[in-house]
Amino acid sequence: MVLSMRLSGKIPLFFALWLLAEFAAFTLVSGMVGLLGALFLCLLTSLAGLAMLRRLGFSTALQLRRAMAARSSGQTGASREAMLDGALVGFGAVLLIIPGFVSDFFGLALAAPSVRNWIQERMSTGRTSRGPGRKGAPTLVDLDPQEWSRVEQPKEPDRLEPTDRRSS
Fold it and tell me: Least crowded by CB within 10 Å, which of 40, 109, 134, 164?
């Protein structure tokens, strides 16, 4: 519940920053190639995204048919990695369809297999939300004041130093 409240407050901020970045990128590109050139590039990337999504739809339908045929014959179907890869390609195609150069940049990045493999590795190791080496450890424990108490740590015993054995 706390996470959804924090996330819902960040969505409008993220959207505003994204629009600002898109406006700045469009202004920069239109300064380089002109307004008509920038509009043409937006149209071109949207058409490329539609073509990618159409190709993905056909290949996904073909993979689904193969997986169902394999499952009926007792073999294993499509793997989780293949499904995630297809979802990332689809998300990249949708980002290409959305007008704007920032979304096009991320859409083209998701079209690259090396970027998709990097994302899959991060998702499989659980490093997307936690620091390195802390797999499975919670990043935040939220307790009410009556749910915790402070306990003093026991002090380490003083180290005994060797005594001088002088003859007296």
Answer: 164
Q: Report the C-alpha gap between 54 and 97 in whole angstroms.
A: 12
What's this model's pTM, rounded to 2 decimal places? 0.59
22: nearest Cα among 4, 2, 6, 45: 45
Burial class of 22 by CB neighbour count within 10 A (0 to 12, 13 to 18, 19+): middle
Quote helix, strand, coil % in the chain, to nearest 5. 70, 0, 30
What's the rounded Cα separation, in Å, for the pair 163 and 71? 78
Each residue's pLDDT tens digit, 41-100: 999 999 998 998 888 877 777 776 776 677 666 666 556 777 788 888 888 888 999 988
How far apart are alpha carbons 52 and 56 in whole angstroms? Answer: 6
CA 112 to chain centroid, in Å, comes to 15
Exposure of 30 in the CB half-sphere (CA atoms within 13 A): 13
Query: What is residue 167's DSSP assignment?
Result: -
Residue 94: closest CA among 80, 110, 83 = 110
How does DSSP classify residue 153? P
Contact between 136 and 126 (Cβ < 8 Å) = yes
The Cα 63–Cα 46 span in angstroms is 25
